[in-house]
Prior knowledge:
single chain; alpha+beta; Immunoglobulin-like
Amino acid sequence: MATLNPKSYTTLADFKLFAGITSNSDDELLAALIDAASRRVESHCDRKFYWQENAIHTFAGLDHAIESLPMRPVHRILEVRNLVSGTAAAATGYHLDGDAVFTDNGFYFDGYRNNNAAMDKNYALARENWRVKYVGGYVFAYDTAKSWITCPAVADLSDGDTVTLFDGAQEVTFEFDVAGDGVAASNTQVDVSGDTTASEVAATLRTALNASALGVTTSDEGSGLLELVHDSTGEPILAGNGVGAPGFVVTSAPLGPADLVLAVRKLVNHVYKNKNRNPAIRRQHVLEAAVWYSDEGGIQSEVKALLEPYRRIVGV
Length: 316
């Protein structure tokens, strides 16, 4: 049975449906070609698109204030760290700007001026001075969907505020009980009467979520942020937000764009339909898949057009 790299941008079944293939005899070859095509798309775009919870990007910096990250989309920055001093930058010193991390003072943060000689040397030798940790990528139709809930402090909630979540099969309405006097019979209680901070509200809501009928696994990311992961593949968590509190947000990781999936399908189909049918040299064709049988850039013109919006711009 063929094993497909989970970081591929389409599945074996999806490609075979696209190409009209019903036989299983070439499944191993097709799985290798799908993986090679997915990596070729990343190489062409200078980005990765599969989901990463703790992606890391290191770079020299020094000469610019904005660093384009090699992933799309970028959801949030976890840390920006100066590798020379070993110190993490203050969260107020940077922010996310599209798919890039932006700093007001450039990557010479004022607090690290005494390290400039070492940083200059690293920069001249193309060594890394900075490390960014972040969450990024798409979820594809065959991935487990992910969503996040950003919770406010109790002072920003009103007694009786609700949020309704739907996992594709079950719908549950959670009611925030600020006064500690109970909730409507049809709702699930989130008793925050003893809470104060956003982190405490998130912990209480997480307990209610995990005890509910929703098919999700919830983790506490800190600072009032919860992550919800579908227990099976499918659509993201859908929310009907009846919470009027500022800062209460329910978001879902975006599904992978159809253009990326189509690009991989077309690249694999291009190689597969032109492959030599001699089984003795099939392995060589797999090895050549990363080079492709097409124009000078190794990407067919129609595929280039599909991928153009996703290419990374470096040196901002």
